[in-house]
């Protein structure tokens, strides 16, 4: 009998660290779920902004109750609108709005239109033109073009970059497109 009690006590002591770890994992999960929920709601709210378009790029990071907004926009009101909708999300305690408002420039506006035509008029890329917010974003800042977003394949990414490089008046093109299968 004494042997069984000693064996049971040894097993219990050996199991305690594992049980404590399991408890710690559970206590961390609600925070992770909360951040996932906040991220999902932030993404939804940003995409639903009425003036968010192909010439804007919005991103964010969630760290606990703090949401950091990132990206570039062509309208100052879009920056403030993004901050305001994110502030209203349950669980968001602080919004750090680091969105850059692109300078007004007739030359940049001309480049934006030319880039849009060059990319979306290509037959192989027309599929990306559909939807409220196309997945390829064209950011133009003082003649420098940055491509942000998602495409289906590496050949599509290369073709977008090639088309963007063919527009006159552009100083440089940075292709930050990500390849993700849908």
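^ Assign residues to that structure.
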């Amino acid at each position: 009998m004494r042997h069984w009690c000693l064996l049971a006590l040894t097993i219990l002591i050996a199991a305690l660290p594992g049980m404590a770890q399991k408890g710690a994992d559970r206590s961390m999960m609600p925070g992770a779920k909360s951040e996932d929920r906040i991220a999902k709601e932030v993404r939804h709210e940003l995409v639903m902004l009425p003036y968010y378009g192909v010439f804007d790029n919005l991103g964010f990071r969630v760290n606990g109750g703090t949401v950091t907004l990132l990206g570039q926009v062509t309208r100052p009101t879009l920056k403030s609108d993004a901050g305001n909708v994110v502030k209203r999300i349950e669980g968001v305690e602080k919004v750090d709005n680091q969105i850059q408002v692109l300078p007004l420039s007739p030359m940049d506006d001309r480049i934006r239109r030319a880039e849009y035509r060059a990319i979306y008029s290509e037959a192989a890329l027309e599929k990306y033109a559909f939807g409220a917010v196309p997945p390829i974003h064209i950011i133009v800042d003082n003649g420098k073009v940055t491509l942000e977003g998602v495409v289906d394949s590496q050949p599509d990414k290369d073709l977008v970059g090639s088309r963007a490089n063919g527009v006159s008046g552009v100083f440089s093109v940075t292709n930050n497109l990500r390849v993700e299968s849908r």
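The beta strands are 57-63, 66-73, 94-97, 100-101, 136-141, 144-151, 172-175, 178-179.
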